[in-house]
Design goal:
- By secondary structure, this protein is an all-alpha fold.
- It has helices spanning 15-32, 45-72, 77-95, 105-129, 134-152, 161-180, 182-185, 192-218, 225-246, 250-253, 261-286, 291-316, 321-338, 344-361.
Length: 374
């Protein structure tokens, strides 16, 4: 493994990884667009579940590639070509989402499984390049192949059974990653600084997508004092999210992670929450969603973001647990009070105030001694 970036001093994300993250966020932006469609101000519950169910396989592709790159990225031509192929498949999937989702489901399945097969192939190649890692690479390779094959088999079944088979393959892959593979993954612990940097960079790009959503909401729109105030509030919320997320981020880099599960898996909820909150900002500016639906999405978005954000700290830094629980309960109470407000823009103001309150509360645990783990 000495020829991989794993052993580089002061390792940072490569330019290709940044490109990969950008493509992923563009794809997620197309998925989030599902939440922008309302009929007479109402959001069909099926739209929300469609958003989550499309988000899941795309996120799992990103996690699978990140787990591989964290340990075995040599930044050579083979790795670059394989990664670029996955990026192209993400673009294809992105183009098939929205209105043509059901009609193009078979093509989406093929795109997903091809991405997973490429990742399996990358592990297979690493098996012969890094002799001391053959047990790890072999186990992960076969788990990825098995999960992808189950998902691919879904095209043989009629709806709605095919959807169940597709997600059965993802569930198999995910559960194996959580329960079966950790003893093997711990043989080569994750490169902590690189992993934290990757999720941080992806979060920054997703916040940029939130700013894009804010800008789109203001395009060709009649300016009023209320609209301007809502736009300002939207930007303050995005800034507060950045503050809440990154102000204590350095504490994770001080920890000695092994599998990295606490960081990777929790960010599914972080990214879901960010996507929903970005959509809420746009709806508040356009006043295009019924208050009842806005409240439901606000609860889901806030809970997903804070639970996802807190989980890694809760698991990796035990001395913070009491403060994390208290701060989270406070922000949830404030969010609940915000939901009592009668208009969507008022609710957005309340959510922003809750974010700012949490940012102030979090100042109390910024200096925490490093915890050494085995």
């Amino acid at each position: 493994m000495r020829n991989t970036k794993y052993f580089e001093p002061n390792r940072t994300a490569t330019w290709l990884e940044l490109f990969f993250d950008l493509i992923f966020v563009v794809t997620i932006g197309d998925v989030t667009h599902i939440l922008s469609h309302t009929h007479e101000g109402r959001l069909d519950p099926l739209q929300f579940w469609k958003f989550v169910l499309i988000f899941l396989p795309l996120w799992w592709i990103w996690v699978s590639h990140t787990v591989y790159a964290n340990r075995f990225d040599a930044d050579d031509r083979k790795h670059r070509l394989a990664t670029l192929c996955i990026m192209f498949l993400l673009i294809i999937i992105s183009g098939l989402i929205d209105q043509r989702f059901l009609a193009s489901f078979g093509a989406i399945v093929v795109g997903y499984t091809l991405s997973k097969y490429i990742i399996a192939m990358m592990y297979f190649v690493s098996k012969y390049r890094h002799k001391g890692c053959d047990k790890l690479t072999t186990a992960v390779c076969w788990v990825v192949v098995a999960g992808a094959t189950i998902s691919l088999a879904s095209i043989l079944f009629p709806p709605p059974l095919r959807y169940g088979v597709f997600y059965l393959g993802i569930a198999f892959d995910l559960l194996a990653f959580i329960f079966f593979l950790p003893p093997r993954l711990e043989v080569i612990p994750v490169h902590t600084e690189h992993l934290i940097e990757r999720v941080g960079l992806l979060t920054i790009i997703m916040l940029g997508e939130s700013v894009s959503s804010l800008s789109a909401g203001l395009a060709n729109f009649s300016w009023t004092v209320e609209t301007l105030l809502t736009a300002v509030t939207g930007f303050v919320m995005i800034s507060a999210i950045w503050w809440v997320y990154f102000d204590s981020f350095h504490l994770l880099t001080r920890q000695k992670l092994t599998t990295g599960h606490s960081v990777l898996l929790s960010h599914f909820f972080v990214f879901i929450g960010l996507s929903i909150l970005a959509s809420l900002i746009r709806h508040a500016i356009l006043d295009s969603m019924a208050v009842s639906d806005f409240r439901v999405l606000a609860v889901i978005g806030a809970v997903c973001f804070f639970i996802g954000k807190q989980y890694a700290y809760f698991m990796e830094i035990p001395e913070l647990r009491q403060q994390l629980v208290v701060n989270t309960l406070v922000v949830f109470v404030l969010t609940g009070l915000a939901l009592l407000l009668p208009r969507t823009d008022y609710i957005l103001h309340g959510l922003t105030a809750a974010m700012i309150c949490y940012a102030v509360l979090s100042l109390r645990y910024l200096n925490v001694p490093r915890t050494e783990k085995g």
